[in-house]
Amino acid sequence: MIRTLVAVVGGYAAWTAIWLGGNAVLFGEATEVVAAGERYAAAGPLVGVIALSIVCSLIAGVTTTVIAKKRSRSALLVVAALLLVTGIGVQSGVWNLMPAWYHLAFLALLIPMVLTGGKLAGSRAT
Q1: Distance CA 61, CA 14 (A)
Q2: What's the half-sphere exposure (Cβ side, CA atoms, 13 Å) at 68?
Q3: pTM for the full model?
Q4: Which of 24-28, 37-41, 120-124 has the highest mean pLDDT?
């Protein structure tokens, strides 16, 4: 039980740390525009942000699986659900500031990419 809890916290923390760092380094302009309450619709950077989210989600899945070991499936589902709930909260707060395709793609990819990261880590362990 403790290992599962640590795995969930570790996976969520990994996603968050990489997301915050990556956003600050790679997409500072977009972050500043949205933070100022202005609309941002440049497709290239938004696709880049989605790519960053995919990387974060894969790493969160790997981290969760490596820590959880045998109970990784339940830990992965909890991390994926927590990231989706957090994502819905954040995306709904900036819904009018970016195109709908961005929000929908961002949210739709969270769970499958976390689970894929877990599957990748699980296959390497065997």
Answers
A1: 9
A2: 29
A3: 0.92
A4: 37-41
Total tally of structural domains belonging to the chain: 1
Amino acid at 9: V
The candidate with the shortest Cα–Cα distance to 36, out of 104, 88, 83, 97, is 97
Domain that holds residue 92: 2-125
Query: Which secondary-structure segment (H or E) carries 24?
Result: helix 2-26
Note the pLDDT tens digit of each residue in 92-102.
999 999 999 99
What does the block give as tokens for 91? 């995306």
- Length in residues, the chain: 126
Angle between helices 43-68 and 2-26 in degrees, nearest 10: 160
